[in-house]
Amino acid sequence: MITILHYKVHEVSSYINWIYFFHAWGFQPRFADIADIHGCDVCRASWLTSFPEEERPKASEAMQLFKEANRMLNLLDEDFEVKTIFKLCKANSKGDNLILDGVTFPLLRQQMKKREGGPFLCLSDFVRPLSSGITDTVGAFAATIDADMEGLYEKDPYKHLLVQTLSDRLAEAATEKMHEHVRKEAWGYAKDENLTIPELLIEKYQGIRPAVGYPSLPDQSVNFLLDELLNMKQIGIKLTENGAMYPHASVCGLMFAHPASEYFSIGKIGEDQLQDYARRRGKSVEEMRKFLAANLQD
C-alpha cells in the first residue's frame, strides 16, 4: 500500500539539519550551532562572544542568516507544504539484486580492497535471501516541495537562493519525519524508539535510509525503478530522461530495518561488475557507464 503524507512547513522545520544549510552558504559546521541557541538577546550575544575576535564577523553573518531563514520559513508556511510518499514492499535478496513487490532492483557491491579488511558490502546483504523462504520488508520513499516554491523571488537573487537552500533542507526534513513515522508506526519495528531530533540527525535509530546519489546507491537511473514502485507523480515529482528529479528539491531512496545495516560507499568498481550490472539492469554497458562514471576505475 502506498502512503502519502503532507506536511506544513512548520511541521518539519524542527527536523532541519542546519549544518547542511550553512554549508551551502559557505559556513563551517561550528557556525550552524546558532540553530541550537535560545533566541533571546543575552543567549545570542553570549554565543557570539564564544568565538575568537577574528571570527565574530562571520558568526554575526551566520546569526543574521539564520534569522532571515526563519523569517522565510514563516512566510513559506502560509502557502506551501512538503509532500512525502512511501511504500513498504515485500522483499527478498537474490545475489546483488533486491526483489521488491516483484520488481527486480539491481544493486552494486564494493569491489576494491579495503585497508581495514572486512566484507565487501551490498545493500542486498541487509535483506533475507529468497532461498530462505521468508519474506522480508524494504521501504521505498520519496519527498519533495511544492514545485511553485522553485520560482519564488526570481528577481531577488538573495531571497531566491535562500528559498532554494531552504527547499533542499525541507525535503530532507520531511523525509526524516516520515522515516520516524515509518519506524514507530507504519512499519513499527522500532515502536519504543524515543530519540531527540539531534539524535535523529546523527542517525541513532535502527536501520538506514540511503537515498539515490548516496555512496551506497550511486546510480541515478534507479529513480526509474523507484518510480515504478511509487508512482512519484502523485506528489508532483517528474523524472527527466536521465532520471533527475523535478522539483530539484526532491529526494528518494530505500529504507532498511536490519539492526546491522550501515551506510557505506561502493567506491570504484571494475569493468566486470559494470558489465554484470548493465546486464541485470537490462541496459547497455555504455549507458550504465554514463551513470556510473564516478565509480569506474581510471
UniProtKB/TrEMBL annotation:
GO terms for cellular component: cytosol. The keyword tRNA processing does not apply. Residues 1-298 form the AdoMet activation domain. One of its GO terms (molecular function) is metal ion binding. InterPro entries: Met_Synthase/Corrinoid (IPR050554), VitB12-dep_Met_synth_activ_dom (IPR004223), VitB12-dep_Met_synth_activ_sf (IPR037010). The keyword Amino-acid biosynthesis does not apply. GO terms for biological process: homocysteine metabolic process; methylation; tetrahydrofolate metabolic process. PROSITE patterns: ADOMET_ACTIVATION (PS50974). Keywords: Cobalt, Metal-binding, Methyltransferase, Transferase. Pfam families: Met_synt_B12 (PF02965). It comes from the Bacteria. This is AdoMet activation domain-containing protein.
